[in-house]
Design goal:
The protein has 259 residues and is α/β, with parallel strands linked by helices. 51% of the residues lie in helices and 14% in strands. The protein contains 11 helices and 8 strands. A 6-stranded parallel sheet has the order 1-4-5-6-7-8. Strands 2-3 form a two-stranded antiparallel ribbon. The N and C termini lie far apart (42 Å).
Length: 259
Amino acid sequence: LLEKNFATNDGIPNLEKVCRETAARIGQPTRRRQAIISVPEPISGQTNWGELNGRALNFNKIEDRLAALEWYLDLALQKWKTLAPQQLDLGGFYWITESVPHKPDFHQAVAKLIHERGQKFYWIPYWQNRAGKDWRSFGFDVVWQQPNHFFHPEIPDSRLDDACDFAKQNSMGMEFECDGRMISDSKIFEPRFDAYLNAFEKNGVKESSSIAYYEGGGALFQLTKSDRPEMRADYDRIANFILDRQKIADQLFKKAETP
């Protein structure tokens, strides 16, 4: 995973390249871009992960799971230092698993490893795990709430309002979600794309909340390549939505930087 994320013309180096080329075209951004590196879970029960410092690790043991994570974090930080991006800052590490921890002490230990390295810890729990409201006790620094609305046509748009309200009550950001079905099955799924942006505008998320974006396998890129005007209009809408948010964030940043 790290080899791919740091490979030439892939992952972080490619993002660095695009940011550099974009800055040359339109100027440096007000705020430096950030990259967050995902952390795969060492799954309990796995016994054939391999060796670390000549010792075979057994993920039935919490100490071995943590040892593998510590190795992964240090290797990621080493690769970041070697790459030495000029356009990007390291924003921290993202916990991939979306379920609520059954053993909070393990996640607290993971958070401790990340915080000891001067980094932040991020998470995006799915909607059914309402215990995600306890995210601070698990050691996370920033959390976004998944509505899990787009993928299930039987779920009403009111789910988005409920998720926005839940996130606001618990100091969480929100996640936007879509995938390629808004193009291949647009009659059903395109309105669900619009529903997210409508709900985020109606509930004040657009102006005041952090937002994560899940777009399932390059859906937004597919929109730019579509020859259907309505698909291009969808892309323009979310592009302008993000642009508006960037302007708000830039203003807040400048205000904070002003003595």
